[in-house]
Amino acid sequence: MEITNASFINEQEISNILQKYSKPSYEQVTDVLAKAREMKGLDLQEVAVLTGISDPLQLHELFQTANHIKDTIYGKRLVLFAPLYISNLCANECVYCAFRAKNKAIVRRSLNQTEVRHETEALIKQGHKRVLLVAGESYPKQGFQYVLDSIRSVYEARYNDSEIRRVNVNVAPLSVDEFKLLKAEKIGTYQIFQETYHHETYKKVHVGGKKMNYDWRATSLHRAMEAGIDDVGIGVLFGLFDYRFELLAMMQHIHELERVFGVGPHTISVPRMEPATGSDIASHPPFAVSDLEFRKIVAILRLAVPYTGIIMSTRETAQMRRETFALGVSQISAGSRTNPGGYEEEVEDDTSGQFSLGDHRPLDEVIRDVAQMGYIPSFCTGCYRLGRTGQDFMDLAKPGAIKAHCGPNALSSFMEYLNNYASPETFSIGVKLIEDTIAEMEGLPRDRARKLVDRVKQGQKDVFC
């Protein structure tokens, strides 16, 4: 039976908790940070305590704790991907989005399957191995089949015997039967954002289309997981309402998924409102989040759900992205375009894109920057293809066993990128980083990394453990 009621979002409970912990004591903050270091997650009250931090010294301790947890669980890995917008058609009226149905200021376009393959080939040429397929919430005459066909086109695309190895999907909420069709196409993660969990705000900013139905959207991940998709991603659009409320509501959503399915979301995205063509509110967020508050959000999430990936998009500037790597971000997009056809045409078109980008650098430049900071750019898709998803992934992640796979796989996938796509400068920086990293590893992970990297150096592709 499909779940259609989002009663698990309890606004009164959130309000009471936030009021109680609006000015937490020094001892309360210290106790929560100490618990967070155990890496077992936090409850709503503890998250509320962290949102109330204002003392600069305790803010510093929050950031240091987030860095410790990030480094302990993920090491220096950063997973890279690219969004692939196949259509900007939409039937909804979301006042913050350029894709909204009545917006005449953008050029509408939906890619045919040949164009989808060409866009994918353009991404493969850059070195990408995983994409997030995105579509506005309306499709051409094929309906939902258009999405299924597009996933197949992405997987079928080839360039120089290389391909996309994982397709994640961000599309409109579906029924359980439709989610089963999506799973049959071998997707990775199904991602959907509630945008805001605050009911009154949700109603104000969603004024037309099926997206007006708060409950149908909030329960979409229940249906996805019921259909067998065990890797799901959530997020809110920070700036629509008080970020403290949104964090606690998101925790209620996470706890509900854990209660029903035994495992929460695989990823959390943290988009901040950015200007969008034809939207006044997008340029003037009603609850604008400062840079300091944004860093605080990332750090709190890392403490609250330590084993969940945190995604940072190219909405943010290069500098902000750099600052959040140490606070908990584990996945980033790079070289992004939000307009359909933008990769093949090498055009970033604000007249048909969803929002303004903050980081315009190409993939190779992002990778070089990341590597110079000491982080390992990872294109690994091994866990998905070996079935290490959902509960199986968490069973390995929580005792730390997943690092024996993720570390070596990150290095081998990075070496593959360097061999086939990197500029000479990036190649030199990357090879040194790989060798330095292997030298610091111990035991089985080191042995695995050495063998995998050597196989790639000899010309092999797609090696993982």
Topology overview:
Blueprint: H1 11-20, H2 26-36, H3 44-51, H4 56-74, E1 77-87, E2 93-94, H5 113-126, E3 130-135, H6 145-156, E4 166-170, H7 176-184, E5 190-191, H8 199-205, E6 206-208, H9 214-218, H10 220-226, E7 232-235, H11 243-261, E8 267-269, H12 280-283, H13 291-304, E9 309-312, H14 318-325, E10 331-333, H15 363-372, E11 376-378, H16 382-385, H17 390-397, H18 403-420, H19 424-440, H20 443-457
Parallel strand pairs: 1-3, 1-10, 1-11, 3-4, 5-7, 7-8, 8-9, 9-10
Antiparallel strand pairs: 2-6
Structure at a glance:
The chain has 465 residues and is an alpha/beta fold. The chain contains 20 helices and eleven strands.
CATH H-level superfamily title of the largest domain? Aldolase class I
| CATH class placement of the largest domain | Alpha Beta
Task: Please state the CA-atom Rg, rounded to the nearest Å.
Answer: 21 Å
CATH topology (level 3) name of the largest domain: TIM Barrel
Helix content: 40-55%
How does this structure look, described?
With 465 residues, the protein is of the alpha/beta class. The chain folds into three domains: 11-70, no CATH class; 77-378, Alpha-Beta Barrel (TIM Barrel), CATH 3.20.20.70; 401-457. It contains 20 helices and eleven strands. The strands form two sheets. Strands 1, 3, 4, 5, 7, 8, 9, 10 and 11 form a nine-stranded parallel beta sheet that branches. The protein is globular. The model has no long low-confidence stretch (mean pLDDT 93).
Provide keyphrases for this structure.
3 domains, alpha/beta, two-stranded antiparallel ribbon, TIM Barrel, 20 helices, 465 residues, 11 strands
